[in-house]
Amino acid sequence: MDKLREIAGRVLAFAKEAGADAAQCSVRESETKEFNVDGGAFSLMRTLFDQSVSVTVLKDGRQGAVGVNRFDEESLRQAVSDAAAAAESAAPDDAWEFDKSGTKKSFVKGCPECDTEKLFERTKELLTTIGERFPKLVIDQMITDHESGRIIYCNSYGTSYETVYGSYEFYVGYSAQEGDKSSHTYGSSGRLDNLDKPFIECAMTEKELTDTEAQACPEPMDGKFTGTVVFTPECLREVVFDTILSQFISDRALIEGTSIWKEKIGQEVASPAFSFSLAPNDPRIVCGTRYTSEGFPAEDFDVIRNGVLKSFVLSQYGANKTGKQRSGNTSGSIICEPGDTPLAGIIGGISRGIVIGRFSGGRPTANGEFSGVAKNSFLIEDGKITKALSETMVSANLHEMLHKLRAVSSEVQENGSSVVPYIAFDGVTVSGK
Prior knowledge:
The chain has 433 residues and is an alpha+beta fold.
């Protein structure tokens, strides 16, 4: 028996000895090869090794969970003991449940083998390209890496998964400077399963670099208006999708009864032009999860289709607590359907509005109200981008805004974790100085 499986078996045996009614564990080993660039120059190359064990036990309707990063028997026994103690001190809750199907599957995801030389060349290439093509940009930091590893998941009902995985990731943080003026900092990133293309051609990085350089001399906006806001894919994830997932359709929102969509399954909650799924099995998602945190196989599903709410995003625990159906996964692997209009065409049809690249503000309220500062943004006037904006406020109600969707772009950003277009919404309040 191999080491990770042996460790998983020992953990489950220790849990049984501790009186657990059920238990699950995940055992992982990984290796990360990483390049760092600071201040525009290579500063570090390193290889990191990691290992971890997480164990969750159920005892008399109570749950306890602990994680450790050691594989020796004393540490494993202590982890199980601590998890059992945590369960004993927890409130009883019969909604906790693990998969009982006895499913056994193995997966190979992404690219487990690293081409270190090519990773270095791609990193150097991105650094050189930015220097040559974007003279106003200053790179604060760049990190590229390849992580590979193996994970064994097992539970006391015989369900087990073996995952061998590997992926490349890149991140570059930068700002534009011209004289004594500068843009807000922006970051481009992506997860990849190959190095066939330069990093600048991945995940809309070139577009983001171009936009940030054009924001070197932002100007304030006078006055206040209600108009159209075009959310970039990155900002759309942060403001729209994160709010929908956390505030409207998740375990907590539905268990606590705060969701304004709690009775909306099968009803229209957005414009018919709005559709998205959670699809970790989509080939554009790199190393997407193949099973849930409770051991159930991960299945792709529609959340909203043509504006109609098709499913909540509930774990088995959330389903048991609410009496509703467990969703196929809770991964956050968003696939949002594109539209038919290019971004340029969307902007060309807007009389007054802004393009917003980042949002700085508090989490939207349970009813969808949000307000904050639009950063890395442009003013749109008479169908044209006229200037980069300095600190500008935006506010709206997300639930209402979804019904005022103006257009969805044909372009999408594929960053390895999600597939998201630009979306324009009407009826947003924009405030200058």
